[in-house]
Recover the amino acids of this structure.
């Protein structure tokens, strides 16, 4: 009994940790979203934001990518361009099977952050943050230069001109 309970707990822990790791922003950014937008996780949902000129559409699905009905739901999207004020907020209305949509006077730039809030009937409210355009280059990666902490030179020691080889010419240099 105790052994089988331990197996169940370990299995459940592995399942949770594997599914949690699959839902990071990096994961979503490395996979194409079904409608060409940006995808994020919010509670039990995957939310895909597609922005067009003065309109946004938010697609709602579960973690298995099954459509979730938005009927009877409410939502809003708040736009902020960098640290500038004021923020612009538009209401999101159910618009089809698993969509919310809203229109308003907003502009999306590389600095724009969109925070979406949704509430579906008999469910907890959820919110998620989208930064819809490409993120800024990470420090040390600009202009195609290698970052200062690049480890490509670790193959040789400072006083070695080339790694030592045995009589057969095999390199047995160990990385540490």
């Amino acid at each position: 009994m105790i052994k089988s309970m331990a197996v169940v707990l370990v299995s459940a822990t592995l399942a949770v940790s594997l599914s949690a790791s699959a839902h990071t922003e990096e994961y979503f950014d490395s996979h194409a979203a079904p409608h060409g937008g940006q995808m994020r996780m919010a509670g039990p949902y995957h939310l895909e934001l597609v922005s067009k000129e003065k309109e946004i559409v938010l697609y709602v699905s579960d973690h298995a990518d099954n459509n979730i009905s938005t009927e009877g739901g409410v939502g809003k999207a708040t736009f902020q361009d960098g640290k500038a004020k004021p923020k612009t907020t538009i209401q999101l209305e159910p618009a089809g099977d698993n969509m919310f949509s809203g229109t308003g006077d907003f502009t999306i730039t590389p600095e724009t952050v969109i925070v979406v809030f949704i509430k579906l009937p008999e469910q907890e409210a959820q919110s998620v943050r989208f930064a819809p355009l490409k993120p800024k280059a990470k420090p040390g990666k600009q202009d195609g230069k290698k970052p200062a902490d690049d480890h490509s030179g670790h193959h040789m020691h400072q006083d070695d001109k080339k790694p030592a080889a045995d009589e057969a010419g095999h390199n047995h240099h160990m990385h540490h």
